[in-house]
Amino acid sequence: MTEEFQPLTFPPEVLARISPELSLQRHLAIGVRPNLRTFNEFRDITTTSGGLSRYNGDSVRGDSSVLGSSVLRSGGTMVVCTISGGIIEEDLPAEVINEDAAAVNAVFAKEVESEIESKQARLDAYTSVYPVVEVERGRVGAPTDEEMILSQKLYETILHSGMISKDALKVNVGLRSIDTDGSEHIYYRSQDNTDDDESSLDLGPKRAWSYVLYAKIKVFSRSGPLFDLVWASVVAALKNTNLPRAYIDENAAGIKIPIKIRGNFGSIREQYQITCDAVKKDKLVLNEDAIGFASNFGIIDIDQEAAATVDDFEEKMDVDTRSVLLADLEGEEEELTAKKTVDVTLGQSGKELKSLTVVGGVSKSELKQAIKLARQRSEQLQNK
């Protein structure tokens, strides 16, 4: 008596878990992807802005410190981004703080060479946000490599894109005055060049402050590469960001405390508190031309042995027998199998390249095709 062995068969979802590469190769052999999208098709993106922010139109949520927010959905993935902020004091030149320093620098200070102020000068005119990316996996622990790499890449891409200028984050410090009758007034420097009485006042001390922005990004139901999604979420939150106005008390402006050290007299400035206005705010001004859109691609080599296992009755499509370019990778099969990837970030016009990351041996034709699809994707998202 001989036993007859029967071949094992698995449903598609089980086969994708056991052998994701084989499952993907069988799909690509007939010209489809496991998610039933075409090779050049992107997932739809929907974004909702301002739902978690302190400032929502004319209303103010007193229990929230979020300056801007966005909720992004793409397929089964959801990304929540919140923007918070702080205020730091800028390092001003000595001649701005101390009137005597200008005369001293004229004698002893050396002139700065013009070569140093070349490329670095442009970069110094812009700033970035400090992002923290968290991919929710149902456990608590140290940040993963993916989270740290995404955070660093977000910081550098925003900085080098020139989206946020340092002038946009300067604090327009006001001065609070209390009259003899106890009424309180807050005066701000006019941000335009009007000649009204309030704008002509010399308000505040010879010190400068600027806002620092922090972005906290939480990702739920991760299903593929995340940079394009977290980038779109941060950009949407920054467009919705409002900066609160800040002021100091008039009795603290310009105060100096005399000190004596080893026979030398001098003075130190008092450290005083800056208070944020609970209602008044200013819109964060972004460089609209620098805002871009990100796309990701994967190049997968076709396995001829897997293609040969396709049954004759299954409809085959005309595909490249060597490799295929997949737009917007999704699922474990595509992400693990794609050994060659391309990440493209284009400007709002679709002509200026903001960021390009290539991993693996990508050919020139594949790179051109990826940039072409990224340009079409940028135009599509801009018109939404």
TrEMBL record:
Pfam family name, one: RNase_PH
Any Gene Ontology biological process: U5 snRNA 3'-end processing
Predominant place of localization: cytoplasm
Domain spans labelled Exoribonuclease phosphorolytic: 41-244
Record keywords: Cytoplasm, Exosome, Nucleus, RNA-binding, rRNA processing
Coiled-coil ranges per UniProt: none
Cellular component terms (Gene Ontology): cytoplasmic exosome (RNase complex); nuclear exosome (RNase complex); nucleolus
Listed CDD domains: RNase_PH
GO molecular function: mRNA 3'-UTR AU-rich region binding
InterPro entries for the chain: ExoRNase_PH_dom1, Exosome_comp_Rrp42_subfam, PNPase/RNase_PH_dom_sf, Ribosomal_Su5_D2-typ_SF
Record's subcellular location: Cytoplasm; Nucleus, Nucleolus
Family: Belongs to the RNase PH family.
Name recorded for this polypeptide: Ribosomal RNA-processing protein 43
Organism expressing this protein natively: Cyberlindnera fabianii
Lineage, top ranks: Eukaryota, Fungi, Dikarya, Ascomycota, Saccharomycotina
